[in-house]
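New here. Your pick:
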Amino acid sequence: MSYPLKKLSEICKFQNGFAFKSNLFKENWLPILRISNIQDNNISYNRLVYFDLKDYEKDLQAYQVLKWDLVIAMSWATTWKLAINNNEEVFYLNQRVWKFIFKDEITKIYIHYFLSTKIQENLAQSLWRAIPSLRTEQIKTIQ
């Protein structure tokens, strides 16, 4: 039995991160998931920064990263860094970090594995560029 190929944008949406203000960072409170916290396919607690909801007028619920959410770094040399939140802790997406929002019940771990193979392909194609990069449309059209 063969299954039809679908573009990534057909099975999920993407949530861009929020531009938190560094002058409002706190020593503790609610953790902000930055690119530097995406390490080895996991979320690293090293150098986490925090914020207080009271410092922002905007409703930031859409930027929450819940348990089993899949995120990807979308900025220059860090592009293609993936992580699954396998913690109970809720993080908040910083700018240049995207969250995948699946339309159907799809196994996020499978998609994580699949995308990691695409990372290798992208990096191989980028060997002659100083900094491998990824355009928004490029990721949305992955089949």
